[in-house]
Amino acid sequence: MRFRDSIKTAAVSALAVSILISGCGRKADSGNVSVLPESESVTDVSSVFPVSVSESIPDIVSETVSEDAEETASAVVVPEEQEETPEPEPAAEPVYSAEDLIVLQDEGMYTYDECAFDVHVLASAYADLMTLDSLGTTADGRELYHMVIGRPDADLQVFINAGTHAREYITSQLVMKQAAVYLQHIREDAVYGDFSYRDMWNRCAVHVVPMVNPDGISISQSGLAGIQNEDILNGIYNIAAMDGAELTSAYLDRWKANAAGTDINRNFDAYWEWYSSGPSHPSSDHYKGEYPGSSPEAAALITLTNNSHFSRTISYHSQGRLIYWNFENIDAIYDTAVAFASEISAATGYPLESNYSTVDPAGYSDWGIYRCQIPSLTVEVGSGTCPYIQDQFGQIWAENINVWEITVLSALRY
Length: 414
Ligand SMILES: [Zn+2]
Fold this sequence. Notes:
Bound molecules: zinc ion
CATH class: Alpha Beta
Number of helices: 13
Structural class: alpha/beta
Number of strands: 10
Shape: globular
Strand content: 5-15%
CATH architecture: 3-Layer(aba) Sandwich
Strand order of the largest sheet: 1-2-6-3-7-10-8-9
Helix content: 25-40%
Order of helices and strands: HHHEEEHEEHEHHHHEEHEHEHH
Number of domains: 1
Oligomer: single chain
C-alpha cells in the first residue's frame, strides 16, 4: 500500500489511544475527566463497545508493526566475549507524528483503512489535545470513529460529521484534513483573527465523526471486494435484485446507503413518516429504513447528539456547492441559524438554500433543527457526479479551509 513507506517506526503501544467515554458532554460527568497523558487509557472499552479501539487498528498497521518488531529483535546482538548478558537497550519511544498522516500526503481516494490509520496517528501525535473512541461497530465490522478535539469539559461543543452517503467519501478526507490542520494550529499556538487556537481548544470541544458510513464507502470504492462478511455480501445481491440492477461497477460506485441498504441520511426523525419518494425496500439509494434510527449509524449519531450539548453541527455531503440550513420548527433558533449559515456561506462561497420543502427530509441536519433545536448545516461540496470528483479535492479543501474555526467562533460569540 502506498502509505507503507511513510511509516518509519511503529509499535502497538504507539497507537495506544487515550480513550474517553465521557457521556458525551454531560457536564456532571465530563467535569471529572482530565486531559490524558499519552498512552494512558481511561477505561476498558470492551465493556462498552463490541470491538475496542485498540483491536480495530487496521491490518496494515499491525503488519507493519510485526515486520518492524522482527527487525528490531534480530538486530539485538549479544557480544560473545561478555560474561554477563547486558540489559537490552530499552526500545525507543515509538512516536507517530503528523508527518505520518496519509491525509496530508495524498489527495487520492481516501479509504476506511487510511482513515482508521490516520485517526490513530492523530490520537498518538496529539494525545494531549484530543481523545478517540468508537461509537460502535458496523455490520461489516468497521468502527465508527469519534474524535473530540478540545478540553473535555469545555463549556461549548460543536459537531462535524462526514461520509454519511457512501459515494460522497471525499467529505471524510476533507474532515480528516481539517482535523489534522486544526490540531497542528493548536500545537503551534497559532492565531485565527483575534482568537488563539489554544483558546478555542479550551473553550469549545469539536466532536468529529469523519466516516459515518464506512461499509457503504467500502462498497463504493471497492465494489463487492469491499465487503468482508458473507451474509452482507449476499444481502448486496438481494438489494441489487430488488433495485432491478446489475451488479456493475457503475451501480456499486454510486452506492449511497449503508451495507444493509438503508440511506442513513433519510433515517432520522424529521418528517421521516412523510418521506415516500424513496423505494420501500433496501436499496443502494434513498431507502429510509424501517423506522427513524433503525440503522446503527444513524442510531449512533442520535445517541451521541442526545448525550451531548452541541450548539452547532455541520454535516458534510457532496455535491452541489451549496448549504442547506433551514427546516421546520426553526423559529426559536432562526437568527442564530441564519447568522451561522451566512458566515459559512461567506467563507466557502457556497450559496444558502432556504427552500427545504423540495428536498428530501429525514436527514441528520433536519433532525438537529427539528427535534434538537441546534443550528445545523448540510454543506454540499464539489460539483459534478459523485464519486467522480476526486480531482476537485484541492478546490474543496481551499473552500472549506476555515470552516472549523468559523463554527467554533460562531459558538463562542453568539
Ligand atoms: Zn449526501
